[in-house]
Amino acid sequence: HNTIVNLVKLPPDRAFQTIAEHGVSHLSATPTYLRLLATTGKQAAAVQHVASGGEAGQTGLSQAVKRTFPAATYRNIYASTELGSLLTSKGEIFTVPAELVDKIRVFEGQLEVHRSLLGASVADHCADEFFATSDQVHVVSDRPLTFQFTARRGDEINVGGNKVCPQKVERELLQLPQVADVVVYGTQNSVTGSIVCCDIVTRTSIP
To answer: Of 207, 160, 163, 155, which is closest to residue 185 (Cα–Cα)?
Structure first.
């Protein structure tokens, strides 16, 4: 009998008001939306648990969540339509648990999972023992397998034949002290096919 509060499309100030009005204790959102809330400098001390997922985690997100929701525990969840919820972490780095070491692997920089972890409707049409998730990762350690999600295959921007990962550019820009938030994208160019563009929110532009 708990109340479900919909924050979708609410601007940050209104989202914080709604969280306070309803006494929201558990919050689930994409990393992008959590970072948007964090750029306000506001806090919601009543929130006890925060979960993120739906896209690659962003550098410094766990610290931003802690500043914005100081009393909350934080979980980063890796899930998909084919797998359901599969892995969790307290930050951007995931470690494969012992019971899944034979069922999760990285091949040519892409995360693959054993067909036994898939839903029946997907597993029945899986030609190989392992299913390619299209999620690209950076391996931190092999034993145990530890990695960070970097991008989705197909998200790259093709600049004159060179593939640029927008998430990697975003991570670099977010390390600059003047940058509060950023989105990197490609736009058409008559010479190179595409060029890399970015929209930046600076810390000085936040009221």
So the answer is: 155
